[in-house]
Amino acid sequence: MKDAEKELFGSLLRNRRLEFGLSTEEFAFRIGVDRNTINRIERGERTPSLDTLLKLRFNGRLSMDRLFDEYEEILKTIDNNESH
Question: Does domain 3-83 have CATH number 3.30.565.10?
Fold first, then answer.
Protein backbone atom coordinates (compact mmCIF):
# COMPACT_ATOMS: atom_id res chain seq x y z
CA MET A 1 0.00 0.00 0.00
CA LYS A 2 1.42 3.37 -1.01
CA ASP A 3 1.77 6.18 1.52
CA ALA A 4 -1.00 8.24 -0.11
CA GLU A 5 -3.33 5.23 0.01
CA LYS A 6 -2.56 4.68 3.70
CA GLU A 7 -3.26 8.36 4.37
CA LEU A 8 -6.56 8.12 2.49
CA PHE A 9 -7.64 5.04 4.44
CA GLY A 10 -6.64 6.72 7.69
CA SER A 11 -8.57 9.84 6.82
CA LEU A 12 -11.69 7.83 6.05
CA LEU A 13 -11.34 5.91 9.30
CA ARG A 14 -10.94 9.17 11.24
CA ASN A 15 -14.11 10.53 9.60
CA ARG A 16 -16.07 7.42 10.62
CA ARG A 17 -14.73 7.61 14.20
CA LEU A 18 -15.77 11.24 14.42
CA GLU A 19 -19.24 10.35 13.11
CA PHE A 20 -19.54 8.19 16.22
CA GLY A 21 -18.45 11.18 18.29
CA LEU A 22 -15.52 9.32 19.78
CA SER A 23 -12.03 10.43 20.65
CA THR A 24 -9.15 8.29 19.46
CA GLU A 25 -8.65 7.04 23.00
CA GLU A 26 -12.33 6.16 23.49
CA PHE A 27 -12.56 4.38 20.12
CA ALA A 28 -9.37 2.42 20.77
CA PHE A 29 -10.59 1.37 24.21
CA ARG A 30 -13.97 0.24 22.90
CA ILE A 31 -12.50 -1.94 20.17
CA GLY A 32 -9.57 -3.25 22.20
CA VAL A 33 -6.73 -1.68 20.23
CA ASP A 34 -3.94 0.52 21.52
CA ARG A 35 -4.61 4.24 21.03
CA ASN A 36 -1.25 4.65 19.29
CA THR A 37 -2.29 2.03 16.74
CA ILE A 38 -5.39 4.05 15.85
CA ASN A 39 -3.36 7.27 15.71
CA ARG A 40 -0.78 5.72 13.39
CA ILE A 41 -3.44 4.25 11.09
CA GLU A 42 -5.31 7.57 10.93
CA ARG A 43 -2.08 9.42 10.07
CA GLY A 44 -1.24 6.89 7.36
CA GLU A 45 1.84 5.65 9.17
CA ARG A 46 0.58 2.11 9.59
CA THR A 47 -1.45 -0.39 7.61
CA PRO A 48 -3.97 -2.20 9.82
CA SER A 49 -3.53 -5.94 10.25
CA LEU A 50 -6.43 -8.27 9.53
CA ASP A 51 -7.01 -8.61 13.28
CA THR A 52 -7.17 -4.82 13.64
CA LEU A 53 -9.49 -4.50 10.63
CA LEU A 54 -11.88 -6.96 12.23
CA LYS A 55 -11.79 -4.98 15.47
CA LEU A 56 -12.38 -1.75 13.56
CA ARG A 57 -15.82 -3.05 12.66
CA PHE A 58 -16.77 -1.73 16.12
CA ASN A 59 -19.24 -4.53 16.92
CA GLY A 60 -20.82 -4.24 13.48
CA ARG A 61 -21.44 -0.50 13.80
CA LEU A 62 -18.70 0.45 11.35
CA SER A 63 -19.36 -0.91 7.87
CA MET A 64 -16.15 -2.14 6.30
CA ASP A 65 -18.04 -2.39 3.00
CA ARG A 66 -18.89 1.30 3.16
CA LEU A 67 -15.37 2.25 4.20
CA PHE A 68 -13.72 0.23 1.43
CA ASP A 69 -16.29 1.26 -1.19
CA GLU A 70 -15.59 4.91 -0.44
CA TYR A 71 -11.85 4.21 -0.46
CA GLU A 72 -12.04 2.50 -3.87
CA GLU A 73 -14.25 5.25 -5.31
CA ILE A 74 -11.76 7.94 -4.30
CA LEU A 75 -8.85 5.93 -5.74
CA LYS A 76 -10.73 5.56 -9.05
CA THR A 77 -11.36 9.31 -9.14
CA ILE A 78 -7.69 10.01 -8.50
CA ASP A 79 -6.64 7.53 -11.20
CA ASN A 80 -9.07 9.06 -13.70
CA ASN A 81 -7.83 12.58 -12.95
CA GLU A 82 -4.20 11.53 -13.32
CA SER A 83 -4.83 9.81 -16.66
CA HIS A 84 -6.32 12.97 -18.23
Answer: no
Among 71, 15, 78, 79, residue whose Cα is nearest residue 42: 15
Mean pLDDT by 10 residues, the chain (84 residues): 89 92 94 96 94 83 83 85 77
Residue (of 30, 21, 20) closest to 62 by Cα position: 20
**Residues 6+ positions from 22 with CB-CB distance below 8 Å:** 30
pTM of the model: 0.81
DSSP code of 32? T
The answer for residues whose C-beta is within 8 angstroms of residue 8's C-beta and 6 or more apart is 44, 71, 74, 75
